[in-house]
Design goal:
The complex is a heterodimer of chains A (465) and B (241). By secondary structure, chain A is α+β, with helices and mostly antiparallel strands. Chain A has two domains: 187 residues, no CATH class; 244 residues, no CATH class. Chain A is built from 20 helices and eleven strands. In chain A, strand 2 and strand 3 form a beta hairpin. In chain A, helix 2 runs antiparallel to helix 15. Chain A is elongated, with a radius of gyration of 32 Å. In chain B, helix 7 links the parallel strand 7 and strand 8. In chain B, helix 4 crosses helix 5, helix 5 crosses helix 6 and helix 6 packs parallel to helix 7. The N terminus of chain B is likely disordered. The chains are: A alpha+beta (465), B alpha/beta (241). The interface between A and B is medium-sized, with 20 and 27 residues.
Amino acid sequence: MSIAKIAFRNVFRNRRRSTMTVSTIIVGAVSVLLIGAMLGFVTLDFQSSVVRRSGHLTIYKKGYFEFGAGNSSAYGIADYQGLATMVRDDPVLRPMITIVTPVQDVLGLAGNYEADRSKPFFGRGIVPRDHAQMRQWDDFHLGTAGSSQPEMPDDLHTGVVGIGMGRILGLCAALHIARCNAPPRAAPAKAAAADPQIQQLSALRDADRPGPDTTNKAEQGAHIDLLAATAGGAPNVVGLNVDHAESQGSREIDDNYVLMHLELAQQLAYGRGEHKVTGIVLQLRRSADLQAARTRLYEIFKTRHLDLEVRDFSELTPLYKQVLAFFAFLFSFVAIVLAVVVLFTVVNTMSMAVMERIDEIGTARALGLTRAKVRRQFMLEGCLLGVIGATLGVVVAAGIAWLMNISNVSWTPPTAAGPVPLKLFISDSLSIGTWLCLVALASLASLFPANRASRMNVVDALRHV
Amino acid sequence: MSPATTENPVLRISSVSRTYEEGELRVHALRDVSLEIPRQLFTMIVGPSGSGKSTLLNIIGCIDRASSGSVVINGTDLSSLNDTQLTRFRADHIGFIFQGFNLMPVLSVFENVEYALVLAGAPKRERELATEKILRDVHLYDQRHQRPNQLSGGQKQRVAIARALVKRPLLVLADEPTANLDSKTGAAIVRLMREMQRSAKTTFLFSTHDPHLMSHADEVFTIQDGRIVNHERRRNLEVVA
């Protein structure tokens, strides 16, 4: 017969009270685990979404991250294909990498000549085949890989715009954009004056080199012209057939985004000059390899004296860090509130237990139970309440998560374009962490009543009725 | 006192006083009490309620300390022991029988008795054998799996007697053990304690305010207002031994 056995029996002595206490701990465990699982899923889904779009790491020419937004062409990486091959073939990086692909960012003015609409744009030139592959990344097995939206066709003069950009340029009907109102008609005098530069440059472009066939635009769908300054400072314009508009999950990106073929972006940014790229995107097989890959890249740059820098997706997407910080705060807040509730419940239960058993404490002390063992016995009882509640809580939370997962509940995350299946994965670390915290909390909560019990005067305790 | 008692008493109390302070009020529960109790006697302390019997037993039982004077049990001066040492001393050498039985409700009859040996640090096998034997002695072996709430008052007190004696203590202290029992059951319990005391060859110190029970005692101390006012030896030590 041990103290543990006596403690275990005492836990079940007042069943109603113990049941209420254990229930409170279960509710605390379930709440923390489900909220943690949901926030964890949203975080992983967000990370997956960012990684599918922008990769894990991007190699830039040094200084681009801080100053390149003002003049991206000035920070172009020459011989980018050689660099990409070198990275791809590196024996350390090769097993970590799924895709190495160049991108060219470009800023300029987009115009719909037909509708006399224009709008500053932020454009990105990509290799469509690579980006289609990047969209399949699913390291966390969330089942959200791919996209409900169509891929960009692998055609030099075809691209994609954000929904807002399509709306502002008057392409609602042509791109079949849902819930898209046609813009109010501008006054004729002003409309005629809209962006004569684009019209002139379009004419120049058509005369200068072959562009997209725009002779039958009504049949082709939407067509826009993109105006930008080349690296040399000269104005340049290219035509783009818009395949479709897609939501970018953020209004400011939606209103400005143009996705185009890398070569077209290079034509726009560099004209007839040497074609460079803004960055080289690396998508890794596992996010866990990010730091190792970054370190290796810097080793390569140092060895080869390359004036390059590496930025990861969290640096390039500040919203990711903000969302993570917000989730951490939210989770901590909920966890603290629940911890306080559990703490006070266990303190109350154990205090009641001590009050009800004063004569037993006196008897045990008289028979030879030391103060330390009295304390240990009551702490063990609190700990047992925590163990039972936390264990049941983990089981119940796992059951609820399983039910949710087979119910195929979907939701639209704040940064996603459309609904995605909501999956609740309760990680081992979350389960173990929650279990340990609740058991420690219950033990800690019983410390005060246990101390009180251990300090009792034996004679007074025996006299107590 | 006989020479045998003065040579090797199990308990020697010298000039013990116990004073409680309640605000400005000083309550003298014991005043200059001195006594010696020889080994293997069934000793009673009689006196009216509030006379100081329980206080004296508490001090002898190492659960209270004297304000002054000395208490020596089996050669150990209790004033030299700290709290943990006193607890250890109780576990090893003192058995308690309480008026309210004070059994652990979550433990079975067997476990209640075994608990005393657990606290004394006895090995498991030894505990089991000793507990089985004493439960047979008090005729409760068949009830060994029952919980205290399934027992009558007399049975509970028999469990308490078994618990007090199972570790073969130097001294068993019984503070009005029959007060919660009817007279017939109380008499039976006293007879049982007397038998057990003889078979275990231990020393019993039994407090009561019931003069009818005095016939069972080898020695009687009468206490009144915190002082020993009478001492009566009813059997000589050779007979007792």
